[in-house]
Design a protein that fits this description.
single chain; about 375 residues; alpha+beta; five-stranded antiparallel sheet; 8 helices; 18 strands
C-alpha cells in the first residue's frame, strides 16, 4: 500500500486533513525502550500550526497512544498513535470538487478515486499528514540518540535568501544545539530575519514562497545501508517524497556535482585518530548506498505553497470551461518553515529502518 513504508520497521500513515484524526502505526521498534514523552511533545510543537509565519489553523497536535506502550516503554506490539483534528473546517473546500486548485492534488485524486476522494483540505494528500510522520520520527530520533546518532536540520534557503550551510566534514551535534527556533529554524539570526521578511512580503502580496531544508545525521557507523534499491539515499528519498510539497532531493554536492570534475568531487580517504575518514564530503556520507562514517548530508527542496490568495486560472470540471479561482482558508505562506522537523523525522525513520535488527537488541534507553 502506498501509505505504508519500511522493511525492518513498518510505518503506516492514516487519516485526512479534516477527518476526526490522523495517525500512524509503527511495527518493529525495539521492546523495552522508554519514550521520553516531554521531548516528543516538544518536538511536535516545532511542526504544529499557528505562529506568525504559519497557517492560523489551531491544532494542539497532542499524541494519543492507543497501543504499543506499557509503563512508558515500547512493549513489542505495534505502536499505534492518533492526533485529533480539533480545528477542522471541511466546508472551506466544497467548491474544489468541480474547480481544482492549481498545484494541488484535487484533479489527480479525483481521477484516481472516481470523485470519491475527500477533497477537504487535500484529504490524505494534505500536509496535515506530516503530523503523524513527525510523531513516528520523533520516537525514532530518540532510539537513534540512544545509539549515539543525532539528526538535525535547518532552513537552508527561503525564496532565494540563504542561511549558513552545515560544514559537510565537521558538522556535529553542537551545530544542532546552536540552531535558532523562533520564528525560523536557522543557523544565522540575520539570515532568519531576512527570510521572515521575504515570507511576510509574499503573504502581503497574496502569494507564497518555496524553500530548501538541509539535514545532517552524525554518529552513523560506516557500512550502514544496502546496494542498489536498498541504499540509504533510496530509503531517505522515498520518505521525503512522501512529504507534500517536496520536489527535489540531493545528497552531498547533489546537482552541483554535475559541473565538477572527478578530481574535484572524489573525497580522498585519510586516517584520523585511527579511524578512516575522508578529507572532503562531496558524497554526503554515502557511497554505493552505504554509509561512509562521515556526516550524512542531504537537502530537500519545497515548492511554494500552492494555496494562495491571488487569482489563478483553472478549469471547471463540470462545465469544462476556464474559470478564475481565489483560494480561501488557512494556509502556510511557506511550507518549508514547518517542514524542518518533518525532514528530521523522515530521516530518522529511514535510518532506524536501516539500523535496527529484526529482533530485540538492548539499548541505552532500555536499562
Amino acid at each position: 500500500m502506498s501509505s505504508s513504508w519500511g522493511e525492518r520497521i513498518r510505518l503506516s500513515i492514516f487519516g485526512q486533513s479534516h477527518s476526526a484524526a490522523v495517525g500512524a502505526v509503527i511495527e518493529g521498534l525495539p521492546a523495552g525502550f522508554r519514550v521520553d514523552m516531554e521531548r516528543l511533545d516538544a518536538f511536535m510543537k516545532r511542526r504544529a500550526p499557528g505562529g506568525p509565519l504559519a497557517t492560523p489553523r489551531r491544532e494542539a497536535d497532542r499524541i494519543e497512544f492507543l497501543s504499543g506502550l506499557a509503563g512508558g516503554r515500547l512493549c513489542g506490539s505495534p505502536l499505534c498513535l492518533i492526533i485529533r483534528n480539533a480545528d477542522a473546517r471541511p466546508g472551506d473546500y466544497s467548491e474544489f470538487r468541480d474547480v481544482p486548485r492549481p498545484g494541488h492534488a484535487d484533479y489527480t485524486s479525483a481521477v484516481k478515486y472516481g470523485g470519491f476522494q475527500d477533497a477537504s483540505g487535500g484529504g490524505h494528500f494534505s500536509g496535515r499528514l506530516t503530523a503523524p510522520l513527525t510523531a513516528a520520527g520523533g520516537v525514532c530520533l530518540q532510539i537513534l540518540e540512544a545509539r549515539g546518532i543525532f539528526v538535525g536540520a535547518h532552513l537552508r534557503s527561503v525564496g532565494g535568501v540563504e542561511d549558513r550551510a552545515f560544514d559537510a566534514v565537521s558538522v556535529s551535534r553542537s551545530d544542532f544545539d546552536a540552531r535558532l527556533f523562533s520564528p525560523l529554524t536557522v543557523l544565522d539570526a540575520a539570515a532568519g530575519a531576512r527570510m521572515a521578511a521575504a515570507i511576510e512580503a509574499a503573504r502581503a502580496a497574496g502569494d507564497s514562497l518555496g524553500g530548501v531544508v538541509e539535514c545532517a545525521a552524525v554518529g552513523l557507523p560506516a557500512g550502514l545501508g544496502e546496494p542498489m534499491f536498498g541504499g540509504l539515499e533510496s530509503g531517505i528519498a522515498s520518505l521525503l517524497f512522501g512529504i507534500p510539497a517536496v520536489k527535489g532531493v540531493e545528497f552531498g554536492s547533489g546537482f552541483a556535482a554535475a559541473a565538477m570534475r572527478g578530481s574535484e568531487h572524489n573525497d580522498p580517504f585519510v586516517c584520523e585518530d585511527g579511524a578512516v575518514r575522508t578529507a572532503t564530503n562531496h558524497a554526503g556520507g554515502i557511497l554505493g548506498g552505504i554509509s561512509t562514517g562521515m556526516p550524512l548530508i542531504f537537502r530537500a527542496a519545497f515548492k511554494p505553497t500552492p494555496s494562495i490568495a491571488r487569482a489563478q486560472r483553472t478549469l471547471n470540471l463540470r462545465t469544462m470551461q476556464p474559470t478564475e479561482l481565489r483560494v480561501k482558508g488557512r494556509h502556510d505562506p511557506c511550507a518549508a518553515v514547518r517542514a524542518v522537523p518533518v525532514v528530521e523525522a523522515a530521516a530518522a525513520v529511514a535510518l532506524c529502518d536501516a539500523l535496527l535488527p529484526g529482533n530485540y537488541e538492548p539499548l541505552k534507553g532500555a536499562e
